[in-house]
Input
Amino acid sequence: MMRWLDRHPGALFAGLGTLVSILFLIKLWVSPDFLTDEALYAQIGRNVWNTDALSFRTSAFIVHPPLDFLLTAGWERVTGTTSSPLLDAIRSVRVLSALLCGVTAAVTAAIARDVLVGRSDRVRTVGAVVAALLVATSGFMMAFGRMALIEPLAVAAGTTIVLVAHRMRHRPMAQQIVVLGLLIGTGTLVKQTVLFAAAAPFVAALLQRDRRRIVVGAGSILVGAAVWACFPLWAAINGHGGQFVDQETESVQRLLGLVQTTGVNLPTGSPTTQFTRTFLLYSSGYASFLVGGLALLVVLIRSGLFSRTRRPDDHSALLLGWGVLGYGFLLYSFAFGAGNQQLVVYAVPVAAVLCVALLLGGRPVDDLTGLPARDLLPEQWVRTGPVRGRPLRRLTTVSAVVAGVLLLLGLGTYVGYYVVDSDDGTEQVAAYVQANVAPCVPINASGAGFRWETALPQNTVTNYRNGPRALADGVHLYLLSPKDARYAYGTMSEGFATWIRENGQLLYQTPSRSSELLQLWSVGPVPTAPAPGSSCLPTYPAPSATAPAGEFLGMFLATLGVVGAVGSAFIVRSNRRRVSRVG
Output
């Protein structure tokens, strides 16, 4: 079997992707607990399909680029959830996320196999399997890869760009610039953070001090910027230019840490508390990052980066460029920037590849000079290990033990948190309300109200910030999450939470990994009928008529066509010049 997989890497990658997708599909509905963003993105997808509007409520939604929402809309149409209850749509999109995680694992496996050039086919196959499983069992990927968020598609896009760039590195410059530029532009229209992976080949070229590849990297980023530009152009055409500038300015400020609106670095939050509370949940991810960081240092030392006579080989440069961007983005984000834990998933693939490179990688050499190989095609590498004899056996044993510990830790986290345990606190609260609270009775939300409007469709969900004001208006039931209060999410605050605890009676509570704890409190007698004048079912305003999704899709496809046509002409011209020079 191993020999067959060695000879058929495509089947190996497809099998690994399928296996990872299956692992993510298990108990997908009840773990993890769903987030407000999941409800928001699923609803935007429905608006795209049902009303051709890239909007939520009455305004255009330009916080993130549109491509993920277009894909979500198509997926919801295929699964028949464009008009069903929103929770059904969220569950449907989670299936798509699981499939995309399988793609990420398969692509990561392919990259790991490529960087192990110089080792035997069997070692490369084992490395691909280990890399895919490290992605699948990372605590961060298991948590956020199972959600209806943008990250699963964004991580898959960024990892794919890295693979394509590495495999095209010996192709003509024009081909590389056009193909990579189209991919980078498309990826950044999923989410701009894709650039922290997509720019890895350019950083690798800088580290190699290779002018040709620097030109390729810079050119592909410029082409990608031209493709991405259809997003601000679409916003400006539809009268949202000012809103776009304001939103992008805020995004840059959040990235740099100048403004804190979410994440562990909020002034009201505590990074230490968040780290200790979730350590076991993300422990397998932390372990992979630790080993991957050690690998990055080893590659840095071995690569000859600071030598005047040596330059990093292709594979070392890729690992350094990708690793510096991935780890650098991660460290800066948590030290100064937004510090959202879902951002960690962008570094999961590079950490997995670095782990494999450290545990299974040798030091390939040029078969003619005996020096470290550089700029050679894969078939020009000889298969050598790092050492011979007893030291090799010892190193192999240590590598196997470390890899086994990483995988067992990840598997234990997966079984404990996603197979045995169910993290469905929001649905548990909804079930209690349905069984014990009369329909239409108002309930005040904790955090973002839209999440609770999705979970409690039979009740009126209010969003008061002040307890006495809510009570005066006839609201006697209050949802409360200590995390919402600590971080001042939505309308919740520490003062509001204290008022609820001091004046209320706890009716129900259930744990939730994403919200820490979900509670339902009553202040005063629990009403058995809706408050006078209250409306039972929520009424939402029509989506914006000035955010046409079809128009953006047309502009995007037209941009791809124009850039592709111009690029093709440039490629043909370059090929003719090359042929004439050879002739």
